[in-house]
Write a structure and sequence with these properties.
Length: 678
């Protein structure tokens, strides 16, 4: 059933040169493209956002919700959006930030000093600016909704969103720098905003858009800057003690050095220790986190006959191939794999004499998942068991890094002990930064320790597991910095909704749609993290999962439009049954399946509740009296769901299914009685 909304259409919209359907698709594509670009670009310059990726996501959700709620309250074009985007780009480029990683309790290690504005100042600016920027495209989308039947408008919105993901994914694949993102934004602003009056249009749209492109072009032309799907990579060639070295930084943080193998072995003992702890020279070596190639060069210098080099970032691998003085990637003994290390372990059937986790510190989060880093699934007990299963008799597994905290060394060592069944070798090379090497043989006799590890100190947290892969979180709690930040976000959001959208009473009839938005974001987070575990934390998997979610939503809309579906209470029952299935199916069973069967099973388990949830939403949305307000309430619910994602730090990602189920029950309770018959 579809109903037309009674929201008045502005004069500007009636005179728009684009028909409503293509305009809706373009505006929706632009909205999602701009959201993804802001998340990606701000995180590369404001390093705090590399660890709080969904901070910009939450601001985007707030802005999109406000944009829909603003429809009908103003007939003016949202000329403010390109102006705010210009201000945001100028501020970020003028005041870039590197992060202070000394704070215990957050989800990273190693220590650097802060350069740039403090977090308490720059983060609110980024949040508010992201909301204001996204409010413009969202308002343009929302103005199209009253002109079409409910589900048809939602259908074109989803088609546009898929197009936005496809466009941003294509640019990521091509390693396009930010200037191309700015050109896309300028073009979309020019096409979507009505050019009347002309003077206002030129001053508030054309000029700011061109200035944004100019600023991003200046950044793009910076010497030594490359854009990978994960980072802004900068590098600089230099001489260190007469040795050629290339310093590599990502998102403004020193990350790697391309150094000749002989020099690295002389300068830092940790690089040679894994080979000293083995009982025989390794012939076949697996290196996870191969990066610019120094660890690969060392393995070759130690006599390895074959090296599988796994690196998640194609640009870091490409850079290593061109600048590393030893040219290890040109050696015929080396095979490169551009993928996630855990995914490689779960897919490969090869066995090795030595498996090495070589400084796999990603310095960034998986986009769209509140606390999941690219390497999170490498340091769980299940991951180390997977590494153990790839060792030949007499083989060894080793890892090294600057762990910063002694309890992190103990936690990893106890994780390795649980996986291998005996104590590992633990070499703390330097107490400054807790530089350590942890090595375990397939059996105790396959390792040569300088001294016996005394065991984990009292108070060492238990090993991380695949459900709570938060290695750097010492206690089972949400760190205060997150609680304070999220609390302030919710307060600002409440005030913004009241100022922009008017009295909350407008949204009161759509409480159930608000709760559906909260629950769906948790469901989406569980799907993203689940697929990251099963298939890798790569940007490709991430893009496919988000596109798959939108395809499932679109399928639900099409089914609701074309077929008679069961009443809402029945669909809620199907939804809850899907959540129960997702709860009951263990990740270990899915990982045991061959990749094709694993894909089929994972899609079924993950997308059944997503499909049912969106049939529920589509049926309820088609029955609303005000399309824009109801959709805005749902989007604001998604923002609150983004805050609740952090509950996973305490209850794990599987626990989010329980929270989602409770929220869906709440939505069922608040559903209007007349909708129960729909």
């Amino acid at each position: 059933m579809t109903l037309q909304a009674q929201t008045p259409v502005s004069d500007g919209e009636r005179q728009h040169w684009l028909a409503v359907r293509p305009r809706l698709v373009l505006a929706s594509a632009f909205m999602l493209f701009l959201e993804l670009a802001l998340i990606r670009w701000t995180g590369s310059n404001i390093v705090h956002l590399s660890y709080f990726t969904n901070f910009v996501l939450l601001g985007s959700f707030l802005g999109i919700g406000l944009g829909f709620l603003r429809v009908g309250r103003s007939r003016r074009q949202p000329y403010y959006s390109p102006v705010v985007l210009l201000v945001l780009v100028a501020v970020v480029l003028a005041f870039p930030v590197t992060v202070d990683r000394n704070t215990e309790g957050v989800l990273y290690w190693t220590s650097l000093s802060t350069v740039g504005p403090p977090a308490w100042l720059i983060l609110p600016v980024i949040f508010i600016a992201a909301a204001a920027v996204l409010m413009g495209p969202a308002e343009l989308v929302g103005r199209c909704f009253p002109e079409l039947p409910r589900l048809e408008a939602y259908r074109y919105d989803l088609i546009g969103s898929l197009s936005g993901i496809a466009a941003f994914t294509a640019l990521s694949f091509l390693s396009a720098p930010p200037v191309f993102w700015g050109l896309v934004a300028a073009l979309c602003y020019g096409l979507l905003l009505v050019p009347r009056p002309r003077t206002l249009y030129v001053g508030l749209v054309t000029v700011p858009s061109l200035l944004v492109v100019g600023l991003l072009l200046s950044e793009t032309l910076t010497a030594g800057a490359l854009w990978s799907p994960y980072y802004k990579v900068t590098y600089k060639a230099m001489q260190m003690l007469g040795v050629p070295v290339t310093d590599i930084a990502v998102n403004g943080i020193p990350h790697q050095q391309a150094v000749p193998a002989y020099a690295r072995l002389q300068w830092e003992r940790q690089y040679g220790l894994p080979y000293e702890r083995t009982t025989r020279p390794p012939k076949d070596v697996l290196i996870v986190g191969a990066g610019s190639g120094t660890d690969v060069a060392i393995a070759l210098s130690k006599g390895a006959q074959h090296v599988d080099a796994v690196e998640i970032d194609p640009k870091l691998r490409e850079l290593g191939g061109s600048v590393h003085p030893d040219k290890p990637y040109s050696d015929p003994r080396v095979t490169t794999h551009i993928t996630d290390g855990r995914a490689f372990l779960e897919r490969s059937g090869d066995r090795y004499d030595l498996i090495l986790f070589a400084l796999p510190d990603s310095l960034t989060l998986v986009s769209g998942a509140s606390s999941l880093r690219l390497e999170s699934y490498l340091f769980t007990e299940e991951a180390m068991k997977a590494a153990r299963d790839h060792l030949r008799p007499g083989g060894t597994f080793s890892m090294y890094n600057y762990y910063r905290e002694s309890w992190l060394v103990d936690r990893l060592a106890s994780t390795m002990q649980a996986a291998f069944g005996h104590k590992p070798c633990v070499d703390v090379v330097s107490t400054a930064g807790q530089q350590a090497v942890i090595t375990a043989g397939l059996s105790a006799s396959a390792q040569r320790c300088a001294s016996e590890w005394p065991g984990a100190a009292a108070g060492t947290p238990a090993p991380a597991d695949d459900d709570r892969p938060f290695l750097y979180l010492k206690d089972r709690t949400i760190p205060p910095i997150y609680i304070i930040t999220l609390g302030l976000i919710l307060i600002v959001s409440l005030l913004a909704v009241r100022v922009v959208a008017g009295p909350y009473a407008r949204m009161r009839p759509y409480t159930d749609l608000f709760l559906l938005g909260v629950a769906f974001l948790l469901l989406e987070t569980k799907s993203v993290t689940g697929f990251a575990l099963l298939f890798g934390t790569t940007w490709v998997v991430n893009a496919i999962v988000f596109a798959g979610v939108l395809v499932a939503v679109l399928a639900a809309v099409e089914v609701t439009r074309r077929f008679r579906t069961p009443p809402l209470p029945v669909m809620y029952g199907v939804l809850l049954a899907g959540l129960l299935l997702a709860w009951l199916v263990p990740n270990a069973w899915l990982l045991s399946l061959p990749v094709p069967l694993r894909a089929v099973a994972a899609v079924t388990v993950a997308f059944l509740p997503i499909f049912a949830a969106n049939v529920v939403f589509a049926k309820r949305f088609s029955d609303t009296a005000d399309a824009t307000t109801s959709f805005g309430a749902n989007l604001l619910g998604a923002m609150v769901g983004g805050c609740l994602e952090y509950l996973a730090l305490v209850i794990g990602y599987k626990g989010l299914l329980i929270v989602a189920a409770l929220l869906y029950l709440g939505a069922l309770a608040f559903m209007p009685r007349k909708s129960a018959l729909v």
